[in-house]
Structures
1.
Amino acid sequence: MGRGGTLSEGVWKKIILSYSYVAIWIFLSFTVIVYNKYILDRNMYNWPYPISLTMIHMGFCSSLAYILVSVLKVVEPVQMTRDVYLKSVVPIGFLYSLSLWLSNSAYIYLSVSFIQMLKALMPVAVYSIGVLFKKEGFKGQTMSNMLSISFGVAIAAYGEAKYNSWGVTLQLGAVVFEATRLVLIQILLTSKGITFNPITSLYYVAPCCLIFLSVPWIIVELPKLRDTSSFHFDYFIFGTNSICAFALNLAVFLLVGKTSALTMNVAGVVKDWLLIAFSWSVIKDTVTPINLFGYLIAFMGVAYYNHAKLQALKAKETEKKATQFDDESGKLLDEKDEKSARKNESDK
């Protein structure tokens, strides 16, 4: 009973911890999205400068990561050559800066609920780009599932009350850049055995983003900010917003590190439904029945995709265990044969 009791206690601890990580990530992701919308929306805080906001986040995250890695030495830096940094980290930083810039810009033109519906296209983009880069094999069944997700999102877009073409273009661009970044992380970093924890990821990637974003910032937003003499930097608003953004980065890696990327996908679906409900009930965004019907089709497609991925992972694990068992059985048989051979020798 003792061993069984501790085992079940350990399992319970793991379950509670996993759910705690999921809850923390959902809460922070939810907070950052709603907070960013509040700052950028012309009808709320009315500060429509997405590049500036992203740069504030990246500057804050870079500084905190630098203090933790180089000053306090709480976290070990990753062993990395200049060549690897320039060829692997810089392209990922470039894509990340574009993804953040475009997704933050979309908040100015679209409702929170509709943005979440468009984000359902992420598995479609990741799979398509994975096939393009030969990281994923082309499967007819998966592709038809991707088409069903796309079809659902198209219906949701058709039913959108405040449809804005430019906003949709920005959000779709953000999805494509983010999906490319996720595939490139596998190709450029994971394949070389380089893994980042939350702090080292920000330590290496955030400064890149800051440098890349400074170019469009100087051209697009700096002249406008110069003309807006009435603006005074609100340390409380931007400070708390940046803290939330930094905490979300930690939570993302914590969730993937302690659970799995699949758990994060499922948690993401829960968060999306919560955001749609919040957007409709609190922000008073219009959510139409066609919106919801379309998103429901997309949601079912995403759920099926996650289920299929989980089954594939389970099959891989079973195969691994079977191979290990076969190897061990083989070793035991070899040892047995060796022993009987020695016995025969001694009998002679």
Note: Residues 1-5 have pLDDT under 50 and may be disordered.
2.
Amino acid sequence: MLSHVSERLNTTFVAVCFLNNTTHPALCTLFASTYNRLYTIIMATQDGSEEVIMETEAKPKEAEALGEDADKGETESKSHTAAEDTTTQDSSISNGDDADDELEKVDLKIIWNKNKYDLKIPVDNTGAQLKERIHSLTGLPPAMQKVMYKGLLPEDKTLREIKITNGAKIMVVGSTMNDVLAVNTPKEVIQQEVKAEEDKKEPLCRQKQHRKVLDKGKPDDIMASIKGTKERLPTVPLSGMFNKSGGKVRLTFKLEQDQLWIGTKERTEKVPMGSIKNVVSETIEGHEDYYMIAFQLGPTEASQYWVYWVPAQFVDAIKDTVLGKWQYF
């Protein structure tokens, strides 16, 4: 039966092509294409082949493959775009870093005039730079500051070298320029007058009132001295020295309270450092590695409290702590 259909189809194809080839070439071409397809199907069916089915099924698979490729391309495009966005965002974040944030810093508690201030400062800043920051917080000029942390804070060393840690309390003592000008009798005037008087006098250690103490000789338990050097105040009291009456005396510098404690066997006198008008010092003849020092507790020389056999390396530190570096001495 399929053979008969094939013969009839051939006869029809020849007739149509003969009639329309000259008048309708396009129609003849369309019919030829349709004929070839039908002929292929008939022959494949006759032979029992499945090539036609496979061919017709291949096209949807091909279309499906093209669709998957399109989806894959779209996914890759989105991934690439997201990666670019992430890179841009990371770049933006990296470029926004502040160089100062990379410095190691330390949190400090600044205490001045019964006020407390929080300060965060790079640990590699020097004592002088810390004073500048304190100035911005308090209005107290650096030259008029006494900054204390386990003694008077050195200006030329970094906070790291001084071993200042997080949460450390920094004590600041000093008066603003207005406060200094408001004082009736400025300390610097008294000190200049005392210095002028001292220049006119014979050495203190030769005066009778001092000779009676010095002639007793150097105390056995006096602290060792180092001539020609300057050291910060020790963390322990200065002891083993004599006072004007020849009794043993010790000096304790209470920096947190801004007080000087003068202790004897009988009692301990707590003197505010701000009330000390002047500090006078002189080497002891024959023992130049030791000094005699007087703390002027009132407006005249009659209020001077004398201490003998003070180790030379601590004399400047004592003056700095009591009067401050901005004073004249």
Note: The first helix runs from residue 2 to 20.
3.
Amino acid sequence: MAPTKKTDRKAVVDVAAWTFNVVTSVGVIIVNKALMATYGFSYATTLTGLHFATTTLMTAVLRWLGYIQPSHLPLSELLKFILFANFSIVGMNVSLMWNSVGFYQIAKLSMIPVSCFLEVVMDKIRYSRDTKLSIVVVLLGVGVCTVTDVSVNTKGFIAAFIAVWSTSLQQYYVLHLQRRYNLSSFNLLGHTAPAQAGTLLLLGPFLDYWLTNKRVDAYSYNLASVMFIILSCTIAVGTNLSQFICIGRFTAVSFQVLGHMKTIFVLIMGFIFFGREGLNLHVVLGMIIAVAGMIWYGRASSKPGGKERRSLSLPTSRQQNHGSFSDSNEDEGKV
């Protein structure tokens, strides 16, 4: 009876974590679209820095209230994480500027096989045939939804290459640090958010000027745009936290595969709120294929042998008490 209750509780928490991530991720994208399209605030890197500054404030308040317990993360590990994370953010922005939308989407899709490669090499993960095929179906479906014109140039390819690998390494490192140093999502975010906020707010205005030829300090702020910036930062706190929670519970590959549900929601919400592009037949077909692949992946990877670790090299037990804001990772041995 006890194992059944534990499994049911895990399933409930898993669904809640995914729902939290999908809602906040789609929400922040829609708000940012409105902020940039309607109010002309096109300073994406600076805005991301403000997101992490708000997240830093939240973790500081929770630490002061005693909900986040003291923890340790070596400086060398923190610097590596910040390097991967910031290259991911900058690389994605530059890739979008230098590449066609089609090639940009293909680059984003390639993060799944790269994440698989990292898990196979670093964690000795083994995938079953059904799990591999389900990933291919997801890639095909999302590709049909999003990939249109595809043109490649040298500097755009380099930017996309850096963006894909840095993003995959950053997401892999989230789980690696949580397991190796027994950190909850709140603890890890408390270590990384201040460093990311500082570096992005320092470099963001210069990078945004390079990308847009506009200065963030020269932007004409008004009450409506400031309210949208505050709303974006508030929702982004949930996005940042839920990403760490989901990767900590599922691994980076599962986060990437099932995370493409957000791509589908963004397409639908963009049609509802902005109405710029209709949901034509090939987009709807792509959505159906992608959702079918996600369902198949969930079933295939959860079966015995669907996705398993050949040898466990990282510690998986939690020894610290992280207060009432722990991640409830009862299944740290999962892959």
Note: The chain has a mean pLDDT of 81.
